[in-house]
Design brief:
The chain has about 100 residues and is α+β, with helices and mostly antiparallel strands. It has five helices and three strands. It has helices at about 20-25, 30-50, 60-65, 65-70, 75-85; strands at about 55, 90, 95-100. A three-stranded antiparallel β-sheet has the order 1-2-3, with no helix packed on it. A hairpin with a 2-residue loop joins strand 2 (about 90) and strand 3 (about 95-100). It is elongated, with a radius of gyration of 19 Å.
């Protein structure tokens, strides 16, 4: 079985770190994911604005401030539906174009 190169605990990867050592070394992965998500949102929003589209922020963090902290670790249909809300709505040829930052454009 592979062992952590720092503490010797079980890990999935040869010459890798266990979960605890990885988090100590790299910090909280949830925070870096939030930062990357916000950067991606801003890039997509500015792309459409630069092309003279009207952009409406529609994501859960814009509709219900603070909901991301409340939904951390929560499972269920309501939480799933809230997480799947689109990030932006862009009117295009009279129809709403729904955009998620996770979608490939």
């Amino acid at each position: 079985m592979p062992d952590c190169i720092e503490c010797g605990a079980f890990t999935k990867f040869n010459n890798g770190l266990c979960t605890n050592c990885y988090q100590k070394k790299n910090g909280n992965p949830w925070v870096s994911g939030v930062i990357k998500g916000r950067i991606a949102e801003t890039i997509v929003e500015q792309l459409f604005i630069s092309l003279d589209f009207q952009v409406f922020k529609y994501g859960m963090e814009n509709s219900i401030p603070g909901i991301t902290d409340l939904l951390k670790g929560v499972r269920g249909d309501v939480a799933k539906n809230i997480r799947q809300m689109p990030d932006f709505v862009v009117p295009f040829l009279g129809l709403p174009l729904i955009i998620n930052k996770r979608d490939k454009i």
